[in-house]
């Protein structure tokens, strides 16, 4: 019975028209491809790319970031391992990212990339530089066992969000812009290399002069010079000079008056000294003045007056 039914089915299929058989075969082939096809990567978005525009996303959460360049041989060897490690990022709760320093010069200056490849670990805005082995198992153990806690974090002065690193990022962007301009002038416009250098030198000179003039104008506007401010300045200056001169004259007069007073006091002291000397030496006639046998001057005077009255009465 089974054989007879199979033969009937095959006979039925072969008895269909040719176009119907062709459509049926195509449908079966497409169905088989859809059932057997699997995506090449189960997590195509597991490896994130950081740029100058979205780099602030790494300041929150946990990240492992690779800085690489396409022309770097060591980076080319590490890339397959980094892609495998990125497939584990979602399971471990870690964001795996990469940065192409040739396309993102601002991030290269912001993180001070001096060697390639360079790997950073970031946890809630705190950055640490990875120094271990570069295998998938080492990366997994570094994150899973929290070995990053034993590494000293990058100082806040050199953090990517600090003022210093923002300045470095702007400097690297400017240098890349100048390099692109140089390449454009030498390759596209056909200007010789020395001509490009002359153009950049003149541009630097004139830009410096313009910046200096702008700073001078701003300083003169904010802090105007008193010499050219207004006529009131000269009036105030003249008034102050006159007041200073009057004060100086008053001080000189006071000094002269003090000197005169000192001279008068010295003269009075000299006269008093002369009187005392005369009293000690005696009268002008050369006779010694009576000393009254130890009596005071007032008692002696009364005694002399009393003696004269007695003589007159007699």
TrEMBL record:
Keyword Electron transport carried by entry: yes
InterPro entries: Thioredoxin-like_sf, Thioredoxin_CS, Thioredoxin_domain, TMX_domain-containing
Spans through the membrane: 198-223
Keywords for the protein's UniProt record, in alphabetical order: Disulfide bond, Electron transport, Endoplasmic reticulum, Isomerase, Lipoprotein, Membrane, Mitochondrion, Palmitate, Phosphoprotein, Redox-active center, Secreted, Signal, Transmembrane, Transmembrane helix, Transport
GO cellular component terms, semicolon-separated: endoplasmic reticulum membrane; extracellular region; mitochondrial membrane
Single annotated GO MF: protein disulfide isomerase activity
Chain intervals with Basic and acidic residues compositional bias: 282-301
Subunit structure, interactors included: Interacts with ATP2A2.
This protein's name: Thioredoxin-related transmembrane protein 1
Organism for this UniProt entry: Myripristis murdjan
């Amino acid at each position: 019975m089974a054989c007879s039914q199979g033969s009937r089915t095959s006979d039925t299929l072969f008895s269909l028209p040719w176009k119907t058989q062709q459509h049926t075969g195509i449908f079966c082939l497409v169905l088989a491809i859809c059932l057997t096809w699997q995506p090449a990567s189960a997590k195509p978005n597991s490896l994130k790319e950081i740029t100058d525009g979205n780099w602030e996303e790494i300041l929150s959460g946990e990240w492992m970031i690779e800085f690489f360049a396409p022309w770097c041989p060591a980076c080319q060897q590490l890339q397959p391992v980094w892609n495998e490690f990125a497939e584990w990022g979602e399971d471990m709760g870690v964001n795996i990212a990469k940065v192409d320093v040739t396309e993102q010069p601002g991030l290269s200056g912001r993180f001070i990339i001096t060697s390639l490849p360079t790997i950073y670990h970031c946890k809630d805005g705190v950055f640490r530089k990875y120094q271990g082995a570069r295998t998938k198992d080492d990366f997994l153990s570094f994150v899973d066992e929290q070995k990053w806690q034993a590494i000293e974090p990058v100082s806040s002065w050199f953090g990517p969000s600090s003022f210093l690193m923002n300045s470095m990022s702007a400097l690297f962007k400017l240098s890349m812009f100048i390099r692109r301009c140089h390449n454009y002038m030498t390759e596209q416009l056909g200007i010789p290399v020395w001509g490009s250098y002359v153009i950049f030198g003149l541009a630097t000179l004139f830009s410096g002069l313009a910046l200096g003039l702008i700073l001078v104008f701003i300083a003169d506007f904010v802090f105007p010079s008193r010499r050219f401010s207004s006529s009131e300045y000269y009036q105030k200056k003249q008034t102050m000079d006159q007041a200073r001169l009057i004060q100086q004259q008053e001080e000189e007069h006071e000094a002269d008056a003090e000197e005169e007073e000192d001279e008068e006091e010295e003269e009075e002291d000299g006269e008093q000294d002369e009187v005392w000397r005369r009293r000690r030496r005696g009268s002008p006639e050369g006779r010694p003045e009576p000393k009254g046998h130890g009596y005071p001057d007032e008692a002696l005077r009364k005694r002399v007056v009393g003696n004269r009255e007695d003589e007159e009465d007699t």
